[in-house]
Amino acid sequence: MLLCAVLALALMFAEHRLPRVEALRAQLSTAVAPIQWLVSLPSDVLSWGSLAVSDQRALVDENRQLRQQLLTLSHRVQRMASLTAENVRLRELLNATQRDDIPFLTAELLSLDSDPFTQQMVVDRGRRDGVYVGQPVMDASGLVGQVTSVSAYTSRVLMVADANHAMPVQVNRNGLRFIIQGTGRFDAMRVLHVPDTADIREGDLLVSSGLAGRFPVGYPVARVSEVAHDPGEPFAKVMATPVAKLQRARHFLLLFPPDVDVAAGDALWTDDFDLDPLPKELMR
User: Fold this and answer.
1) How far apart are CA 98 and CA 119, in angstroms?
2) Domains in the chain, please, with CATH?
3) Among the ranges 55-64, 221-230, 258-267, which has the highest mean pLDDT value?
């Protein structure tokens, strides 16, 4: 150690006094540089490895958090879209009843009848909510049908398009009154016993007439889609399309019309009328 100290002092004195020693020191530094790099390599590798591992772990954690956040936000967006559409439908329902100020109860679709020739559905309101047999049901566009059976929590609704349903209507343009019957199809109803000379046209809106005390007056039921006159026949063939969105609506209003005898059971069925049998082409 003493020898090294003396040698170091001698080198420092020589570097200070002799100019050539500085050039020699530079050459020696160049020669020693690989040795210094090799000596520092293990520590540099360890330092770089720890930094890389920590950065990778941080990136993995951040990526996981971002994925969870993306999933959560995506779920919220989907739910928000559903709630927005539901809010629009409910607002349409509320606006549809402001004209008559009839008390109502909102309901939501639970299931549809699987029979293609039976247009019935089940809603999530029942006897505990005050629902009664024969109660009118509508959506944001028009009348959907009437309640046919009630349980404690659910109710079955017979739609206006069902072949076993009929109701009195009137032409909104001139007040002519007729009976309209379902055909078993969502897009077709038949106006019965229309005189060949009756003033009814394609595009006429048929609304509930209020007769029989079942449905309130003035609610849209169907729009005339076809008027066919057969020479020699006393009645014209008149077909109509329901205005209610029977295949798409999920939210409905159960109306409570005033002056309706709930216990009277005065629902309007096809059994109450002498109706002609439906043509086979309408039952397909």
Assistant:
1) 28
2) 1-75 (no CATH), 104-273 (2.40.10.340)
3) 221-230
